[in-house]
Amino acid sequence: MRRVAVVAPTPVSLFNLAIPEMLLGKVEIDGRPGYEVLICAPEPGPVPTTGGLDLYVRHGLDVVRDADTVLVAGAGELCTVDPRTEAALREAAAAGRRVASLCTGAFSLAQAGLLDGRRATTYWRHAEELRSRHPEIDLRGDVLYVQDGPVLTSSGYAAGIDLCLHIVRADYGAAVANEVARLALVAPVRPGGQTQFTQTPLPAERGTACADTRGWAMRNLDKPLTLTDLARHAGVSVRTLTRRFHAESGVSPLQWLLHQRVERAKELLETTALPMDQVARACGLGTADSLRGHLVRRTGLTPSAYRTQFSRLGTSAA
User: Fold this and answer.
1) How confident is the model at residue 312 (pLDDT cuts 50, 70, 90)?
2) Which CATH number belongs to the domain containing residue 277 in this structure?
3) Does the keyword Kinase apply (predicted)?
4) How many domains is the chain built from?
5) What pLDDT, on a 0 to 100 scale, did the predictor assign at position 209?
6) Peptide bond before 11: cis, by omega within 30 degrees of 0?
7) 318 and 238 in one domain?
8) What is the mean pLDDT of residues 182-196?
9) Same-domain pairing of 82 and 48
10) Would you say residue 36 has pLDDT above 70?
11) CA 219 to CA 77: how far, in whole Å?
12) Widest Cα–Cα separation across the chain
């Protein structure tokens, strides 16, 4: 079981604080919890929240020392970070721990010097403020989440869900992450480079215009789907499909399709003993060589190495 210390700044966002427990707390491996999630603060006791309530936090920052991952929740005010939190974050990073932030928690990591020279993100409304305070950061202000080595940052609100699912996927594989997403009734892991949807050319009531087509594509990933196929199913032109798809999902139809194919391949590698060429055909990647190329680019692992690391079958079928 992996320990996650969630640091609550002042005043803390209740939504941000709930995300790690909601997602990581649903992970079970062979009937046992995959994570122990502990909320902590520089001073145990009542911590103000952005909703005007006081949240009682039982743990101090001492739990950070034994954590595998330290995650800083977002704060309602972009104020100076408590020196004790800053020191705990530096100590965790120096010890090789994974350090992450949700929303404006990136300001805490930045003040601790953990984002210097790294790629990072935060909620788009505060991106310019973070850039002006810390110009040494390679800020990606329009993406959902970023991982740069052992340091992860996410943008605002629901992007914290994506970051936590990404952590689950990195620790336990795609099948476990997708199961957690199903249990929590949220979308499967989205690519971190997906945009933050700060603008959309579509009115809100049409925000799910391509939902049926995405569902249809997911059921037909084993087929060689093209833009024309997707547009025909949606009953629109390729140009209209591309515009609507990007407005709703933040990526092009083919980028989305490739992401889903690779995710399906990872799930098959984890949960079946199918040979590599059959895995490639089942997810629409064509050949074992194509599967290998896409998986290495996305994960740094060959299909055989990925299966060895994440297989739920107990044996490798590479």
Assistant:
1) confident
2) 1.10.10.60
3) no
4) 2
5) 64
6) yes
7) yes
8) 73
9) yes
10) yes
11) 44
12) 59
Task: Write down the pLDDT at residue 195.
Answer: 60
CA distance 147 to 140: 11
Calculate the CA 47 to chain-centre distance. 27
Enter the tokens of residue 130: 């973070």
What pTM, to 2 d.p., does this model score?
Answer: 0.76
Examine the domain organization and report whether 244 and 303 are in the same domain.
yes
Please report the pLDDT score of residue 113 as a whole number: 97
pLDDT at 84: 96
- 242 and 100, same structural domain? no
Contact 186, 18 (CB under 8 A): no
Q: Which token pair is 254? A: 């083919």
**Phi first, then psi: what are they for 59, rounded to 5°?**
-105, 145
Tell me the two tokens of residue 291.
Answer: 């599967």
Residues contacting residue 255 through CB under 8 Å, at least 6 positions apart: 191
Q: What is the 3-state secondary structure (H, E, C) of 26-54?
A: CCEECCEECEEEEEECCCCEEEEECCCCE
Query: Which pLDDT score, from 0 to 100, does residue 194 have?
Result: 61
Range of the domain at 291: 199-318
Q: Which of 183, 208, 243 is the last residue of a domain?
A: 183
Candidates 207, 197, 206, 231; CA nearest to 217 is 231
